Each structure stands twice: as C-alpha cells, then as structure tokens.
Amino acid sequence: MSFNVAIDGPAGAGKSTIARAVAKKKGFIYVDTGAMYRAMALFMLREGVDPADAAAIADKCKEADITIQYVDGEQVVLLNGENVNAYLRTEEVGNMASTTSAQPAVRTKLVELQQALAAKSDVIMDGRDIGTVVLPHAQVKIYLTASSMVRAKRRYDELTAKGESCNLEKIRQDIEDRDYRDMHRETSPLKQAEDAVLVDTSDMTIEQVIDRIVALIG
Ligand code: C5P
C-alpha cells in the first residue's frame, strides 16, 4: 500500500514550498493539486467563460483534459496536451481558480486524477480538501496555516524579488477574499480534518516547518 501525506491550508501558507522539500527528503512524489485547479481556471479564462456563470463552467470543464507528468521530479500539468506550468502562478489565474474550483463538476474530475496518483505512489499532496475528501485515509495529515498578514508579506516579498510591482494591502485583501471563498463554498470547503495536526507557521522558518513535518511522518 502506498504511503500518503495530506497537507491542507489557506492560500500562501507555504504548502507547496514545504511539501516539495519534504517530498525530496523522504523520496515521495509531490502532488500539487492547486496547479490542477489553476490549469482548469486557465482554460476557462482562455475560453472567455464568465466566472459568475456556474452552468457554463460545469459545461466547459468537459472539454478540458488535464493530466500530470513528472519531469526530473517536477510536476508538469498538461492541459489538452500542452504544458501550461508557466501560466499557472499569476494572481489572475489564482483568483479564477478559487471561483471555478467551487463547481462540483470540476472537483469530481480532478479528485479522480488525484486519487489515482496517490493509489500508485507514495505521495505528499497539498490542497484544500486532501485530508477531508481526497485522501481521508492518509497516514499523516497536516493543516498548515499562518496569519493573513504574514502570508501577504511572503507573497509581496516573492513578487518584489521578481521585480513585479505590487501592493501589500491589495494582496492581503485578495488572500482574505480567497480564504473566504475556499472556506464557505458548499462542495469540499477548506477545513481542518479532525485527525490533522495543526502547524501555524507565522513565527517559524521554512527549515523549522520542514523538520516538524518530517518528524511527524517519522
Ligand atoms: O493552492 P493554490 O493557490 O495553487 O490553489 C488555487 C485555488 O485552487 C485555491 O484558491 C482553491 O480554490 C483551489 N483548490 C481547491 N482544492 C484543492 C487545491 C486548490 O479548491 N485541493
């Protein structure tokens, strides 16, 4: 049986950085489920689908074939055969993902893909509903969080380092809006699984968080 680690938490808590590092240390595959929802959102943006039109999202998602490949240990998302990794990490795609991911039709399709990956390999998978819905029997579950101000500041520093101009207050507002949508949607809302360990990273370094999680995995 494969060994599964589930990491859930709000936007910008550092899930992907931490999960990628822990996967490397433990020799697991890192599965970034947010990237799958982002690829679906990119498809909707390209198709000009209105984010407020739930029926159109549910209908259009049938035309999006999303698959995953691993190249040198890195997850590559293919959208109808095209490697779209380079287009996924923008604020526009992230915000659209938080709207389109609320659609049950979108979730059903991507959860199937996620469960198939976890069934055949040892994985560390991050997202919003991994411990609660996707992998309810994961051997280790972690709920990773940090205050919205700390998360906004990390994102601000990341964008500034890339030379992009941005506004800290606007980022914080976007993060809080996204958290609200993710936590209050009807299907698979973001919440801590009852058997998940809470790790608040507000006052922790990346190394401290990695060590904590590696210790939890054992
Ligand atoms: O984690 P990331 O910021 O890449 O996720 C983008 C969006 O995808 C989230 O705001 C959330 O709405 C959605 N998502 C989800 N379930 C997951 C992973 C991501 O609904 N398992």
UniProtKB/TrEMBL annotation:
One of its GO terms (cellular component) is cytosol. The keyword ATP-binding applies. It is found in: Cytoplasm. GO terms for molecular function: ATP binding; dCMP kinase activity. Coiled coil: none annotated. ATP binds at G9, P10, A11, G12, A13, G14, K15, S16, T17. Belongs to the cytidylate kinase family. Type 1 subfamily. This is Cytidylate kinase. It comes from Simiaoa sunii.
